[in-house]
Amino acid sequence: MMANIEKKIMKLCVCKAERPKFKEVAPILLSNPQMASVLIVDYETEVYSLPTNVFNFDTQTKREQIRGLTKIAFDIFDQRFLRKMKTSESKGIVVIADEESRRMMYTAIGANVAKEKSIACVFDIKDSVQNILTLNLDVYYLLNIADLSDNDFKHVIRDICGRACQNCAVFLTFDHFDEEDGWRVDILQKVLSKKQVQPPQAIVAFNAFNPFVALIDSTANLGYIHTFRERGFRLDAVASPIDKPASITAGVSRNTDFDETTSSKLAYRLASIFEQMSEFPTVRYYRAFHRQNRLIAEMFLKHFKERQKSTSKNRRVYSRNYTLIIVDRSIDLLTPILHSSTYLPFVFQELELIYNSGDNQIDEKLSKISVDQVYQTVIDLVKQNSSDAQNDQKKRSLQQHIENIEMMNNKLKNGYRALMDVESMVLGKSKTSKASDKNVKEKTIKKLLHATHKAITPLDIIRLFTIYLLTEEKIVPKYEKLLKNKKQLTAAELEKVSEFAKLTKRLFEANKIALQKLIDKPMIAQIINAFSRGKLSNDTFPEAERGRGSDSRNKIFIFMLGGLSYSELQFAGNFDGKLEVNLCSDGVMTSRMFYEHLIRNS
How far apart are CA 2 and CA 11, in angstroms? Predict the structure, then answer.
């Protein structure tokens, strides 16, 4: 029967000369409830597999081939989700998930594993999944309830109440620490109780961006920076009670409870990752002007020890190969707004193209290649793999990169190259002589503003002039006039440029960081370099728990509170052939997202 269903769908594909929409395939499924293991669907984007892969791994990928944080993400989903699926008389399993949870599942398990577990379809919570489709199946809800809108949450509750299936269960992708989300957990429990279904279970998962990068939240948390600005850039407004007298800090931040809750959530999720790795790291944190880094470090130790006690019966042995270093976005607000000159950051940040090439090894080879050299590098890789007739996945991956490079080159030809040259000049990286630097810089900027470049957006101009204001006192009046006349920036946008530059300068002062050092090398790269040489300052990066022994210089795990930029991801992986570098954050953001966080929502 299942073979016949595949033939029907494949015949439909041939007739249309392309993959049909899911709604065209649905009647075949509805008339054949025994669809288990035949079709895997991402309903929202109408992508399904026959067995084309909708997950990160090729359908032939074996479990033992995945590695690093990708392996840890797989293990968490395997142990806390897949293995908890009950075996029943049903014909298969349907998963209904929100976008964030679906993404985490896609990066954690491969299509082959989904098929092993008889996962037939993966639907979005907004889809109207008919009961006739699930009547003989098990339905598992995978939810990140904290980030669901009220309408989506109501829709999920109605869906669970009216769902007709063999078995039903609800899994929470992250956890439910927020007090403000407690009422949602209570409602879920009452609904499941009436259906005689067990309470929701927390997976405490994370998004494995690649084997060396982990994301443990759906958004970057920048509340401490907002507080700093709202309080007039006063350090005492966000300082740690440990570092400042109680009389100064008492009641200064209206976000104190929120900050502690957020810190607890992030610390708990970090602890979950290290517990799954069977690693108890040395914990260090950046001594910032605010208390968030220290809070997360202390709460990490608290949660980790609690989890140790709860699993003591299993006699798990913990290794000490890692040093966890907790930092925050305020140490480097320059890197996220710089225009990318390396290939993969350019694709993500400048093209704003999120894609999955399907081959981590090729992505790693291209991650640090400059935009000028990447085309030849890809051509060389194509030649190397041309004789490998079996490896279709590599060929598809390289084809995707060739398409990306074509888009990148078009953007560079349409003014982006000139923009990047001006930015280098503003930052003092230009090769022009020092005597003529200022004159050349002014002429080049004026020429750029006079020209009409299709690829340059208002956001690019905002980024450029924010950087300009970090090196100069104010925008030259003639630039302001040109910007307004050419309608590249409004007066309000110019004001926001000044505001962001002022905020960045004050944060540099608060953290005692020199701009020139960040121009030379991003702060994350400086931390990695200092750590590898045993030169990371104990005053600036104190241990959260003294007496646990010296750092392991074998593996480093850096957690960035407030989001990683795509440019910083290139530092994950192997450093100098000796140090394994893992990066983790509550989110990854483009410069557009960064400005929306810090300026437009102010």
Answer: 14
